Amino acid sequence: MSGLDLDTITEVTASVREVFAAGTGAAVLAKALDELGWTEVVEADPAIATTILFSEQGRALASSRLLDDVVLNQLGSVLPAASGSRAVLYPRTGATPGTVGILLGAVEDDTEIVSMAMDENGNASWCLRPASDFTTEAITGFDPTCGWSLARTSTAATAVAAAGTSWDDARAAGRLAITAEIIGVCASALELAVSHTSARHQYGRALASFQAVRHQLSESHAAIESARNTLAAAYAASPEHGGGAWAAKVAKVRAGQTQAIVMRRGIQVLGAMGLTLESEMHRYVTRAAALDALLGGHAELAVEIGTELLGGAAPARVVTI
Amino acid sequence: MSTTAAPVEWQTDVDAYAQALRELFSDDPAFDQWRGVHHATTEDRVRATATLLGHLYAGGWNRFGWPEAVGGLGGDARHRAALYDELSAAGLPVPDPCLLMETLANPLVHFEPGLAAEMLPRWLRGEEWWGQGFSEPEAGSDLASLRCRARLDGENYVVSGSKLWMSSGATATRMMCLVRTGTPESRHRGLTMILIDVDSPGLSVRPVALASGLNEVAEVFFDDVVVPADRVIGSHDGGWGVAMYLLQFERAMYAWLAACVALRRFYELRDRVMTNGGLPDGATRRLGECYTDLVSLRARSAETVRRLSAAEAVGPEASVDKILLATAEISLHDLARDLLGDHFLTGTDDGADEWRHDWWYSRSATILGGSSEVQRTILADHVLKLPKENA
Question: What ipTM does this complex have?
Fold first, then answer.
């Protein structure tokens, strides 16, 4: 059960939406959340607070380093105390972890970059290096407005702590927050598709009065709802019920599948408008793709789940009554 | 456990009840007689799993989730959901009579507590089970166009017409039917829900075999069947409201129950194929995706069951549950068919037989209880509030 009642959740959601609508410079965002009394909201119900914050970030197509806080929050007892600000270097599929990775926003030169490195025996450890050890290059490919950058370093780092299960925990927390963000992106994209097809007429009727269009939008809705429910269940599942890393992986697979469905349908029902820079649809499509890939895309994670199951894994039920 | 030993705290502590069920199913060897049993016919399967209900009832176990006034031991929908989950997790079947109990017993308890007190205990003991008579040859998804007619004649109704696609129709002893009491044009306004005994003169049942060869459904003919007026569920011409009340349970609890069973079958499939070399390309990913479908379905339907148990009205959004259920059922059984390969097509053992039967039955997931097309239209109309199709 939530520590926040429905009215509070509605109110907080509306306030966070305004914060993102007003623009998201890191400092602006931090100040606005502070004014909202965000710390108290998080204390009352961290799962709902994270879900609201990241869903709204997704809705607004905003970009920030808020995910770093979620990840670092899991590492409080593992890393040495921070002397200044920290940022997280996210692994990039196919790249050596720790020396190449993704930063989700701008960092100061003296910001400590937290990265996970893997030795040849597969042992993971945490490394700390100043941002000045890295060269960065803005990521501009499919989602040029993501605000992320690719960071590289040739400086060797000393491991400050064995990662142990903290990597699983930190990654799981990150995956749940990204799931919420993908849900937000999808919800906004569906709203755009609904409003476009309701307003535009062909053959003397609104597009959204044609069954072929209506059913595609309904499928998008069902997919988004299933991602929401899976996310809530993953947050609610205790470790002995398959919560933690396993449930987070399942939730992220579901979110990744959801964005694939919602974006495919969204592009289709917008007609050629969905392919243009003039419609916002492309921004949802590309952001959802970037978020899907962050900390493991749905195809890759589904293979991981399948591999574990074929290896005889007997995961707990994740969802109980 | 004797009936009297059931702790009253379980009424409010579902976790403790579920934990006790887990211990029961792992400790009591009597349950082994229902594990891994293959039945040659649907009629055999329904009767055999009904005896499991009787065994559960003797210990008071399946009385949780039903009000004390109608023979239960208190608690709510969550208790019933926990029972189905624990049975499945322990490799036991969910007794067939539970499917229609979830759909029909809830409106019975709500609208006719007197009849429920008289009849529900027999159902809980597995001594009788009912069929649901909604669809007709000329009225499937368009339920409001049904024509099976009931004419009030003094203290009785006289029913004439037919019903089709009745689950457990070949063995049910009573049928809860939606019949037309208004004019042919009255659509959903002129309908009444009524409970009809199968042994009534003028009633005949024709089992309908699915392509699997199993009589999963039946067609029922009513030739001036006399039914006492006190067998009306709800009010005269009030049948649509009863049907809508009933559909909440059908969409929500049926999805949960089916998800519990599907997860058991998923693991049975996994156990069978994990030792096979040479799975086809993509098998690993599909297993992961199918598992994800099942967890998502559980997450969704558990949430809806919790809302039902809190007496919240579950409206058109329950169509999401139904869509997810259909997706998961189709995905699991197509996966089984593909991974089992030749064994699915030509295997002669009980296991192969069961997967073939289940594959055919899984095709009904997008059809029965309101087709996937109807569910998508409900979401489009009432949740997304899109412009109407015929505006």
Answer: 0.95
